[in-house]
Design goal:
- There is one protein chain.
- This protein is α/β, with parallel strands linked by helices and 295 residues long.
- The chain has two domains: 1-166, Metallo-beta-lactamase, Chain A, CATH 3.60.15; 169-185 and 215-295, no CATH class.
- Helices cover 38% and strands 16% of the residues.
- It contains ten helices and eleven strands.
- The strands form two sheets. Strands 1-2-3-4-5-6-7 form a seven-stranded mixed sheet, with helices on one face. Strands 8-9-10-11 form a four-stranded mixed sheet.
- The N and C termini lie far apart (72 Å).
- Bound molecules: zinc ion (ZN).
- Residues 68, 70, 148, 166 line the site of zinc ion.
Length: 295
Amino acid sequence: MAPQNKPRNLIHLSGNTYLLRGSPVTIVYNYKETVYIIDPGHGSKRSKQLRQALSDLGAERVVAIITHYHSDHLSITGKINPSKVVSSRQDRLCIEDPRLRILVTFGYPIPPGHPSLPFDAPGVNVTGAIEPGEEIEGILETIPLPGHTPGQIGIVTPDSVLYLADSAFGTRVLENYYIPYHLDYDTALRTLYKIRDEYAGEYSRVVFGHGPLVSREEALGIIEENISHHEKVKEEILETAPGHSVEETVIEVLKKAGKTPTLQLVLLASGSARSLIASEYDLSLGVDRIVAREA
Ligand SMILES: [Zn+2]
């Protein structure tokens, strides 16, 4: 094993856990000669920074862990030459197939690389699929955080750092997007309550995929803020939905919140709105609540 230097570009969180700033952030954990890279991220600058950090840590083996299938979290995975790529079984197919990823995320078969897509990322071969909740190599814990995607996982390092991926967002992200993106909004909301009531208090550090790096106490405040924001937006969508198409609904809600409904915002928000309308069916309220107010 090469001598270990202070890794360039990384912020030391605790013990052997580090963070590379960005949106999303990347979490780095080193154990003996293996370095675990959680959500490698996107951009050529990022892959250079990670390769430098890996060399400083004397990595002989790299394991990439992808918390969920969104392109901004996995784009440069191939550039860090991992000998193993871990994801949840549920999210695996969308990590491996970019077309399926786009279709599931947006509901439209937009060709990969199209300018209306916020990110473009190749398929990544998953070689170590796990069930959310299973440990990774006996070193890292995973916790199920479904909703944003079906199989999103959170990661806990042995230094008591909890990485929440996209199950909760920083205040600025909530303000900018207004309607948070979740493939299954109600499940994501239940996950948020679970994070508040069961997970977040257990660990000494809580880190968001897109958000500020803050103390645990401040992170708990941001989680609370996520819950009230998500509840409010849910109510607004369900109030607006009767008599409107999904896209009309989100445009209306975004405009009322003072947001310009750009194509990208509408594409993302429509996923959340569609899933909320589907949840109404789940609750056996049937179409009544959605359609009856049309008259
Ligand atoms: Zn995401």
